Predict the 3D structure of the following.
Amino acid sequence: GQQLNQSPQSMFIQEGEDVSMNCTSSSIFNTWLWYKQDPGEGPVLLIALYKAGELTSNGRLTAQFGITRKDSFLNISASIPSDVGIYFCAGPISNTGNQFYFGTGTSLTVIP
Amino acid sequence: DAGVTQSPTHLIKTRGQQVTLRCSPKSGHDTVSWYQQALGQGPQFIFQYYEEEERQRGNFPDRFSGHQFPNYSSELNVNALLLGDSALYLCASSLVDGNEQFFGPGTRLTVL
């Protein structure tokens, strides 16, 4: 099946630091979505991106839709303890309909 | 405005049994997608329902079936359960052709 590779796989950072993570694919995406998932709960939508080159912010979060449409980046500024969780990129691959593919996830730990 | 709801929260079954999971979409949404999330992995698309019909299907066997009701709620049925079916089952709702999916809290299925 399709593979969305996220890096890094896990991060351990100090509170207040900035975080960067990315997502790459061999396929072209129409939309990139970033979700955060806490243990035992469903993913929560953070940011949605709709066109190549788009840069979108939501509070301390900023995400970008890569120019090639095969990658996306998520940055978190001034991290706080509640940022802890697993971050997933996701989206529908161009011309494959409505099936969403999810990345492998980046686990974030924030040390107070 | 209620978000996506799922029931039950947890379920324990034995191999060979059948299970039915339920989902109510976010108010105003007409499309429901189901995902399987194994421990430590990203969600995997099972299928999507719109207008009471299966609209698209991922790479899952026929043991996995579903239904959508006129009020847009949905059920996921799994027959002949295997140990490998143990996972968190997530329901996501959206508007038809919408690219933002909103997830419920999930049902944790354990097959013994």
